[in-house]
Amino acid sequence: MTGRPHRAQSDLAEADLEAALAHGLSAGEYERIVAGLGRRPRRAELGVFAVMWSEHCSYKSSRVHLGKLPGAGARVINAQGENAGAIDVGDGWAAVFKIESHNHPSFVEPYQGAATGVGGIIRDILAMGARPTATLNSLKFGAPQHPRTAYLTRGVVAGIGGYGNCVGVPTVGGETSFDPAYDANILVNVFCLGLAPASRLASARARGPGNPVLYVGSATGRDGIHGASLLASAAFTADGQDKRPTVQVGDPFTEKLLIEACLEALESGAVVAIQDMGAAGLTSSSAEMAARGGLGIELDLDRVPLRQAGLSAYEILLSESQERMLLVVERGREKEVAAIFARWELACAVIGRVTEDRRWRVWLGGAEVANIPVELLTSEAPRYERTARPPLPDNKAASAGRGGEQGFERRAPTSVEQALTALVARPNVGSKRWIFRQYDSLVMSNTVVGPGSDAAVIRLKGTGRGLALVVDSNSRACWLDPYLGAVFTVIEAARNLACAGARPVGLTDCLNYGSPESPAVMWQFVRAVEGIRDAALALGLPVVSGNVSFYNETAGQPIPPTPTIGAVGVLEDVSTRLTQVFKRPGDLVALLRTGRPSLAASEYAAVFGAVRPPEPPRGSDADEPRGRQEAADTCVLPSPVLAREKRLLETLVVLAERRLIESAHDLSDGGLAVAVLEACLNPEGFLGAEFELPEAEAGWQRELFGEGPSTVVVSLRPGREREVAELAGAAALEFRLAGKVSEQPRLRLAGLADLDVDELAHRYQQAVEAALDGYGR
Amino acid sequence: MRWGIVQFPGSLDDRDAWYALCRVMGAEATLLWHRQRELGGVQCVVLPGGFSYGDYLRCGAIARFAPIMESVTRFAAQGGLVLGICNGFQILCESGLLPGALVRNQGLSFICERVWLRVENAQTPFTGLGRPGELWRLPIKHGEGRYVVSGAELARLEQRGQIVLRYVDSAGRAGPDANPNGSLNSIAGVCNERFNVFGLMPHPEHAVEKLLGGEDGLKLFRSIEAHLA
């Protein structure tokens, strides 16, 4: 067409653009679609672009940075081009693992949001041909006294249990914390690990033009249209509750059948490629499989199993109904595969085929409803190099979500007793038993160390080996310094594995941030990626998979930067695994150190003194007198020496392998005092400990309650101290005998405190329940 | 002897029971598909834990209609040994092979933890290697494990010694603090009147290896073996 468009046509173009904007696409993106297609998109196509180019599916703001993460390593199998990398864990076994967020759906509808988060990550692992074998989760809720926190916590925990318990995959560990910075945007990150013979990992790469495409699992309904894709790609506004209908409903029973049927189908050798239908459902699974194979795909929507008649192409393509998978099967073997799914009473239908033309073509009722180059949907999706800029002091995004709490006790404690008694009753410090007791941690008969220790340990049947698993995050540290906070998080995860006696072998990350359109948030994100990269490289750990969750903000208030790290370690002999608890009276208590503890970003500082950013306080903050004088103590994170951290990991593993130590426990929330108390809580009967402060002159506050990568508490049989000290010395680590384990359950700190372990334990064990009690069901 | 483990859609601890019997104990066990009608000559049928058919209705309410349950019912009527664990216990109650019912835990939450149990009757085929009053440590993991039964039936069960296992504390005392789910009289496991059908909420198959936290569950399985030997 040349010359001026007719008026009617320009109206039409305007209406198109409006529709695109309503779908969350920008004007520039719309132009790019028109240019790529060489025509205006049809209605269904517009919906398809909106989800495929959404932040959630395209990683358009993060992709340019994620390439910095090290993905390679001696143990890594097929990291390139598949859903995730796998790690060779020995004796022919591969471990596949990944962590994903389900933050927005869980905030809108906690039970189903969390449940479908579990279901989604399990299918991701299944899609790699591995049997889902364990899950862990990292949960961040608002302040316990916030009116929605108890409701959200109960709902999320029940949802994780409701799904995980029924699908038959044990929930073996996790972490939970409460912070007012998450009042209006909780985080639900779920990690899953699966196991497969290394030679039998599945592919998500379509192969063989003419091969049939099979749809298996639940029928497609209208639920969850735009659920994961668009809900997770925009910030919340005050009417976030109205999005409830976009949250999907989980059916763990069907997922259990799907796991068994898919594994059987994969074992038959007839399956060429497999992918789960997660965010953007049928659309993204089919387009991504075609893109990976450099091929095209044709789909006939009339053959898609539907829950109700009359769904439009738009609805079928964008439905995020759960418990569905897409398979490419060797031509001629459709019946064989269909018979497997029939035995498990699951729907199975041939809905299309692989083509050579690199186009994604879809029909409904005999009419073509979409015809798009595969690359335009996938690799050619927009990528943005967003502006990243450190926050100015008056930048709202910078001061948003800071760790300082409303109503913390302004008066510093005058005694160790006062401080410890207050800290152990905090839900961030206290036992999470109330939560993990609601999860089946035993099914599959592999759980050697369940929830409540530094890391979970599962055995690898038939090999004598074990795997240690952990998820960690430290949003207070990341808020103070997004780079060092991320470094801390990686170190902490790796340390937790080593404290179980396992050699760390790989990482996965879930990066939770506010809007990438804010330069300050983008800066936090970029710095975190760099922190993870530097720590992972220094510790020699590949990042085999990951997930980015942006737009975690409500009414312009972003969450603190929260990278969650999932980590996996290997025990050559699972019987050498360690737990955190002291084993017998008379054992020596010692500290292995790489640095001094610090009150910066500590729970102690959150309770007794504000955690502040390094820049000068402004506005109403300046009225608070404590800010500046405590800055040095509570606002600057110490820089860890990564080479020393690596030596600590290796030393712990060797100590465990040679059975030279009886327990190991890393400092976490509450510092050394809480770590020693936790070590006393042997489930077979509480023990006590007498010990001295390593550096009394540094002040008990920092020595007893400081955190950060600094100290590991170990216990050992008397007589072994020389050998342990020699190994520590050879690794240039500080080793210090600090005291001994006592039969009487008392915590005796030379000259500072003599406390009853039973009493502290009671407060510690009731912490979460007591914090939520009285705040509604 | 040969064991048969029934697989319903949604059974979860079926493989764990198989692992315990075959890999840990070295016994012979076969998996029995819910739609088959033959038991293949097994001497003891295990109905495993899990969420049969999703348990979206009452737990076990659908499974009792599975084709294999006709054979299990006949097998029990002929005196064959039937062991129902957790969901299997629920299915046995729904089928009428055991008295009573299992309802939502008193605390309303799912509970996964190790508990202490007291052997109340050591003369059944399932507990013959135990001593009366002996304590076993087994894990429970269920949301609907609160045993209820009519008052008259409860009195009969107690009187005939059909209460085989009771929840207790580590000192062997029963009471509200040691009763995880609010079961009547702290009942954890019951037998039928003929003592050939036994249902329990705790999971013996998850307590067969020291590495995984204990092996008291072996006493139960070995009692069955000894009875049939």
Structure, described:
The complex is a heterodimer of chains A (777) and B (229). Helices cover 36% and strands 23% of the residues of chain A. With 777 residues, chain A is of the alpha+beta class. Chain A has 2 domains: 44-57 and 204-382, Alpha-Beta Complex (Phosphoribosyl-aminoimidazole Synthetase, Chain A, domain 2), CATH 3.90.650.10; 409-772, 2-Layer Sandwich (60s Ribosomal Protein L30, Chain: A), CATH 3.30.1330. In chain A, the strands form 5 sheets. Chain A has a 7-stranded mixed beta sheet with strand order 8-10-7-11-9-12-13, sandwiched between helices. In chain A, helix 7 (110-126) runs parallel beside helix 10 (252-268), helix 19 (482-499) packs parallel to helix 20 and helix 19 packs parallel to helix 24. The longest helix of chain A is centred in the last third of the chain and has 21 residues, at 519-539. Mean pLDDT of chain A is 89; it is low at 394-409 and 611-632. Helices cover 23% and strands 26% of the residues of chain B. Chain B has helices spanning 14-24, 67-77, 87-94, 151-160, 217-228; strands spanning 2-7, 28-33, 44-47, 81-85, 101-103, 111-119, 135-142, 146-148, 163-168, 187-191, 197-200. In chain B, the strands form 2 sheets. Chain B has a 9-stranded mixed beta sheet, with helices on both faces. The model of chain B has no long low-confidence stretch (mean pLDDT 96). Classes of the chains: A alpha+beta (777), B alpha/beta (229).
